[in-house]
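re: that chain from earlier
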Amino acid sequence: MIRILVRVLVYLISAALGLLVASLILDDFHVHAGGFLLAVLVFAAAQMILSPFIVKFVRRNAEAFIGGVGLVSTFVALLLATLLGSDGIQIDGVATWIAATVVVWLVTALATLLVPFLLVKAGVQQARENRADAQN
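^ sequence. v structure.
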């Protein structure tokens, strides 16, 4: 159960970081505070749900494209987040859609690798502090 909660937390944090970085880098990618949380939730849920299905489909039909699954699931998740995210994000122009897909994919991929490490590090630090407090 804890493993699932940590995985969900990692997806949420990486989604938020990916969307925020894209909004900082790309002029036609806008994050609106009012719907940002919903957009993050939709994006993270779409990524978690779609990725395994897209991998299965590509592996069955076009294995040469297996490396692009992350980009495809990121694009579809961005599309769903813009459609269902209550105006949380707005992406204007084909070039921005392509750039946003790459930027968000890259940031979420890096965050998915780094966030668990940082969470473990914070947990270890907290455990050390709790142990030190208990000894005093």
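The chain has a mean pLDDT of 88.
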